[in-house]
# Entry
Amino acid sequence: MKQLFEQIFNQYESLAKKKKVKYPLLEEDLPQQIQTSIKLNQAKYEVNGSSGKGRWAAVPWIGIFDKEISITAMEGYDIVYLFCADMSGVYLSLNQGWTYFDKKYKKNAKPAIKIVTAEWKDRLSSVLQDFNFDEIDLRAAEAKSKLPKGYELGHICGKYYAANDLPEDAVFVDDLRNLLGVFRELKGKMINKSFEKTNDAILTGLEPAEFATSLKSQNYIDEILSGKLKVELTETAKPEKVRQPENKGSGSPRHVDFKAKQRNQKKVGDAAEISVCHHEKNSLEKAGRSDLAKQVRHVAKEDGDGAGYDVLSFMADGKENH
# Structure
């Protein structure tokens, strides 16, 4: 496997400058070597490679597909080797079919695939030490196709191999076998082995219960942050008792992408604070205190978190309200 990867790295950029022809090394030889080295059950898995259709691809790939999920890189979930556009390295990636999102969600394709990616990063527990959830960079900023960016957004977890420091065959084999184990866990958490039903569940928050984020709520938050949407808040009386959440673990260890969780929580928090500012200004305007409404400040955004409160507002009599 190492030798074939090296040949592709050495040949691809010069070949891509010529008229498009078939590239057996990437489309036939290496896929067959992967199938043989891993001893994949051909009744269950299919291995294909692509250097592009009609023209050379900016990011060529070799995919390992579970036939019960999908046999095409355009949809579903798969394991794929993604070559960087500058041939500086290759990613072993647990990924998703971008074309499915692009066709179904159109202008919302990017936020949709981001939500699905984030949920799987949170849900998978069998990610081994050698794999990580870091975003990938295929170095394809100049590519005309949307596919490289789609591959980057669809990346769930994986590993990077630098072209000038490729491991021996045994490492390639072990890594792929281990990622296949993660892939099987993902498959076991799908709904009826259907990527469509699973994605719909993740994006609508209907089921399973763990998938709580919806595309609708994500867009809702984005509209608040951008200023396109003003939210009317309703004040309620303070409850006599606040229910404390039960601290029950799942019983099994799992990886949690704390950075992703923190980013999402900050985004939700910022949207809430903006809504509170809008509410306070409206309330003061209705009370005939437009002078005070102009003085309402989003302290957390303007001054930082040191004040001990997020929004500076006022009571109708002029007293500060934190």
